[in-house]
Amino acid sequence: MKNLFNVTRILIVAFSTILFVSCHNRNSRDKSVLTGWDSKDKAAAGFSTNTNYRGQISPPGMVLIEGGAFTMGHVQDDVMFDWNTTPIKQQVRSFYLDESEVTNSEYLFYLEWMEKVFPPSDENYKNIYLSAVPDTLVWRDVLGFNELLTENYLRHPSYADYPVVGVSWIQANQYCKWRTDRVNEKILMDKGILNPLFESDSLEVKGQNNFNTDTYLENPYLLFNGDSTIFNKGLPSNKLRKKGDPKPAKGSFTGRHAKVTDGLLAPKFRLPTESEWEYAAKAIIEQREYNNIRGRKKYAWDSKYTRNKNKRVQGDQLANFKQGKGDYSGVPGWSNDGADITNRVKQYDANAFGLYDMSGNVAEWVADVYRPIVDNDANDFNYFRGNIFTKKMIDSEGKVVMVDDASIEYDTLDNGKVVPKNIPGSIKYIAISDRDAYMRNNYEKAYNVDSKDGDLGSTKFYAKNEDELETKPRMYNSPIKPRVIGESGLLMQQYDTKKRTTLISDKSRVYKGGSWKDREYWLDPAQRRYLPEYMATNYIGFRCATDRLGTMTPKRRKPTTTKIRY
User: Helical H runs in 248-323?
Assistant: First the structure.
């Protein structure tokens, strides 16, 4: 009986402590420590306040990758001796990553949306939809018969759960932007702020009339030319209805719109950086011993071998890759990796982070521009090469410019394909000016893709200013861009007549991981290759990433040296 009484006392004390701490935390958030104004005071005066935020919600289909330090470029084998993977210590921030590659079915939803909103039958939108369609001809081979794959792989339901291929880096990047808008559109519908746009009889979601996250945050009434019927009731507002004001119509917008300070909208989706992808694929957390890493990993799984040790499937391959000359799947019924080309996603065990197919199946695009060496001059915190700093375009009236149906701009790629620079309905961004970067100590210009490797400072004209030169010297040669001849619209395509010494340019993007077409050498997450951003293959896919906001991890982990005081 005495023991029961003691246990009861302990439980009461523990409960009281938890209640006190939670109340203390809530009160500190409700009240401005520096001014004494609480949330009610601020709301009554018309100031915003948010006391309901409970942390970031994991985006659909994504896994939280807790950040940390690791050695980037640490490979087991380097048979080419090209110093392409020089080891360098890096810190990676926490982020979210798709648990598997984007599949054909997911990409087809994107294509159907593009076809509906930007119908290719409309001459004004024709190139918008076509720019999103993958290159299905990547399956062709002059000495191989794969014609049926060109006709079926993308759209046939047999391949619905297979990773999408034939997608260039540019197309993958555009998909990430589109996904941002669709995720946030769904969030606003679920919160009662936005009506289902495609279900309205009075609205037509076409061209510039579509939901865009940046446009909504800038000014919700830029959407659909200010048509307020697209909105539902909105978030609860602290503003009280005055006596005598007419009662609002049923279902009309009576609340307020979501802001960044509400924490409702998802951050922008993007391609992972090279350091993020390699860190996530290696998953060194399973080799952690306190604050040290024991040994090094050759693959995404914790083994130096590619075959499964499980008795039930012993001998089967742990990933989908080419096992030898003319051997893409192994002998029938034994040591089979389950596929001769790509395979369904999630067919092999996930790594320690819960990510599937980080080794094998398809290689994957990452965000970085390729350079042969990532050396000690590189930033050791969230390293990334490819920054072009931009800002929102402001017109003569001081208003943010939105791209409409009449102001679509297109770009002609080096391979002759036409792609839109901006999608109608989105905010127009331009590069920052020298004036914007004046007296800054963290950057000096907008274009930083070739920083310290290909820019003016990397050439013999390092002491000059770019404005003093008639043409900018190029460290890395590039193909001649197609140009239009006359009024006929004929594209003049020609090859570079100069002696080519490298394929590296500011348009060369890194792709990581081995594929169904690669030998096991390329399964090492630290290995790196590159391809021009406008080209596609039958062995490169992609997955999306987004930032983790706030704490590195939702777990309440405290170091042993910290004393907690209540």
Answer: 274-282
